[in-house]
Amino acid sequence: MSGPTLVIELADPLSPSELREFRALMVALSSHFDEKRSGFFDVNVSAERLGVEDGREEDWRKPFPLPLLDNVSADEELTALVGFNPQREDWRRPFLVYLMGPGVGDESLFEAEHADEPEVEAVLGFRPTHAVNVSAGCNREIDHVATALLAAAVMDVIGGVAKAELLDGQASVVAGLPGVLGIADGDWMVLGTAEFLRAWVGHPAFRLVK
N or C: less crowded end of the chain, CB within 10 Å? Predict the structure, then answer.
């Protein structure tokens, strides 16, 4: 995906009831929903469904001036040029949200992402058995906000601890936020609760790592 990613670390495999609640949440939040496998969701989730407004200007989707397009309509010309119609493009945000680990899928990815992380495990107090990745398909500011809020919503349902990479200088910013469990990897990684993610979103210095 071309946008930011957050990881939700899990101490235990999801139970069948937790998996059903996870799926029900994604269905409820999504304007587009495709389940690639059990626990792997290709979805569109608008920022508004997560409780925030997409702050693009109202005239963002105005058509290009017709004189520049000869006698063809803006819709026809722009569709031919770029493969979509910006006048009809909605503001739903694409995400991949997927459970990974032994017995569920993407095991090699899970193993690669969790190899040699003693400092992270020390902060967590457990060695993750599984994880959920929340990956955005776009990289605007609103996509970073939506990624954090979507991850927090998932954590409300299935539990777990959020793991996020940090940009240079962010460790001192996040250290005092509520819900922070610890900083690891030489100040390049933070672990925290859903409360932390929501608090961080409200901070002026908020930004995830793409």
Answer: C
